[in-house]
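Please check our next protein.
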Amino acid sequence: MKAALQVDIGKYEIRDVPVPEIKPHQCLIKVGACTVCATDVKYFKGLQRRTWPSPMGHEITGTVEKVGSAVQGFKTGDRILSRIVWGGFAEYVPSDADMLAHLPDNVGFEEGAIAQLLPIAVRGAELSVKPGKTVFVSGLGAAGLLCVQVAKAYGASRVIAADFFEMKRKVALEVGADLALDPNAEDVAKRVKTETNGGADVAMEAVGLEPSFRACEQAVRGGGILSIFGTHLTPVALDLTQWEGRSLQLHIMREQHHEMP
């Protein structure tokens, strides 16, 4: 089969490799679609490291080609989406069955591939968003746009979003944001405080960079929640004297494997 392997920083090669064998608890998936995630870009740029050559791509949809002897709940021909399975930039990929979910027939492979991010946004909302609360979303990539939509679905009275790119701000308004701010043009945290009479009840960080984290930290009101979606590659310091004084809470949206249903 053909597979796109990252062979070095900034370099991919299309190679002929054997179709993977599966273990009893696995399924072999014929890949229908796989997103290019921000994590893939970070590996490509060398911001995260692994041993090369390495199979990349981890937000996958496809069809079950083969089922391991110990697998229950899946059969050949089932349409699926994965949770986190590396190797999606290939024709076939093996996956533990407990990392798969059934993809509804009315959802296409391309649309379904991005759905791996949706449960993270949903968990973030379940932990922090209550009806009538105000929400600030920093960063409007796929993760941030999902946060905007999920916050609205969970009853947020107002969602304020921020991103440097005009195109992303326009999309945020189309999918439910009430206001979209440009950090290049104004002090976002100050504007959020003005718009919400003292700060957002919840700030969702969907970038993974310290400036975005700081904007959320400053934009949330006392007693509010800072909820993290973005993947941070470098440490971010917390001033606990400030956090304790303001009674701030920190939530991590991402689930651990043992928490997944």
In short: Residues 142-153 form the longest helix (12 residues). The first strand starts at residue 2 and ends at 8. The chain has two domains: 2-107, 117-259.
